[in-house]
Amino acid sequence: MSAEFEHGARACVQKAANHCGVGRRGYLHFCDLKHHDKLGVLRVFGEASWDAVVVASDTTRLVPGSWLHLPKYQTNYVLRYVVERVSKYAECIGEDVESFVIEESGRFNLGAFIAYMRKLQAKMDPRIIWSRFDPASIVTRRKHEEPLLSIADALAHAGFKALEPDPKWGQCETAYLALAKGRLWRGPAEAASVRRYGFVLMPTSQSGAFLKEYPWLEEMT
User: Fold this and answer.
1) Biggest alpha carbon–alpha carbon distance for the chain
2) From CA 33, how far away is CA 17, in angstroms rounded?
3) How remote is the C-alpha of 82 from its chain's centroid?
4) 130 within 8 A of 124, measured Cβ to Cβ
5) d(Cα 28, Cα 157) in Å, to the nearest integer?
6) Which of 23, 64, 179, 192 has its CB surrounded by the most CB atoms within 10 Å?
7) pLDDT of residue 66
8) Distance (Å, rounded) from C-alpha 116 to C-alpha 96?
């Protein structure tokens, strides 16, 4: 994200926070907002220029006995998919990844993830553009330190609500994702596939089953 685009995105986060009555705080916890505020915030976020990658994993579809059943391995593997796409995005726009910011959490081990990336780098894993991405760029921040995490939080919530049925009513809410889907990266021009680059469901081998479960995915071409 260029300095100009970053400034615009930060301004939109502050504007949304002001509308929600937390302007002094300057960031948002999306899951705490009411439905109408979530819709309004996403519209405000959409006023800035940014592209998004959402990766979601259905752990109920993992192969029995897979290491990915362990949360720490699952988290790192999902983030690896994000890194792959971010590095390709950086290559497409001709820029290096200056910082790869992950929201700080007691459930996430930054050192272990960097070590995992270093192992892939040593093997020169071809799915990551290493000339654009350095594992040293990976950092963790809290929202008060990096308000732009509010946008990532909104996208994660939008994806979750579109995929996970409400425990009380058993239905999914796709309204948030509908407002954000125009920002989902379609990948390199020669590929142009949102479901491969901008909205990725794992395990990817289950793509056919996901299409049957979520027919609206057909519109995300």
Assistant:
1) 49
2) 11
3) 7
4) yes
5) 12
6) 179
7) 86
8) 20
